[in-house]
Amino acid sequence: MEKYIDGYLLAVPKANLETYRKMAQQAQAVWLEYGALDYRECVADDIDKEGFGSFSAAAGAREGETVVFAWITYASKADRDQINAKVMSDPRLAESCCEGVFDFKRMCWGGFTTLVGN
Q1: In 3D, which of 107, 104, 16 has the Cα closest to residue 69?
Q2: In this predicted model, what pLDDT tens digit does every residue of 81-97 receive, in sequence order?
Q3: Origin, by domain of life (predicted)?
Q4: Residue 95 is inside which H or E element, if any?
Q5: How far apart are CA 103 and CA 98, in angstroms?
Q6: 84 with 36: CB under 8 angstroms?
Q7: What's the predicted TM-score (pTM) here?
């Protein structure tokens, strides 16, 4: 069975990166507890090369912000739907919500089927 991926692209103020990391660690624990196969949060290091599209532009990053690229892997879309329902009702995430850490409305999010992978 092909895996299902939720992908995220967002801009985080550099001044809030440590707070974001702590929030992401809590989220990782919750998603994995409910059955996600993998949870990754990655901060930009080597992006925006000349002649290619810009991650910074795609994320809407502004002065003083960095780009975070993240994904969560599930066994299937049905598993994703069940896991996310549990995660969204978990009080641990409500306590560490993203409000004030980054602009949630500027975050890109989507579900993806696997084209190539194992």
Answers
A1: 107
A2: 999 999 999 998 876 56
A3: Bacteria
A4: helix 91-95
A5: 8
A6: no
A7: 0.91
Tokens of 68: 């975070």
- The burial class, CB within 10 Å (0-12 / 13-18 / 19+), for 99 is exposed
Task: Map out the domains of the chain with their CATH numbers.
Answer: 4-94 (3.30.70.100)
The whole-number pLDDT of residue 8 equals 96
For the segment 42-101, what is each residue's pLDDT rounded down to a tens digit?
A: 999 999 899 999 999 999 999 999 999 999 999 999 999 999 999 999 998 876 566 677
- Cβ count within 10 A of residue 67: 22
Structure token pair of residue 41? 């949060």
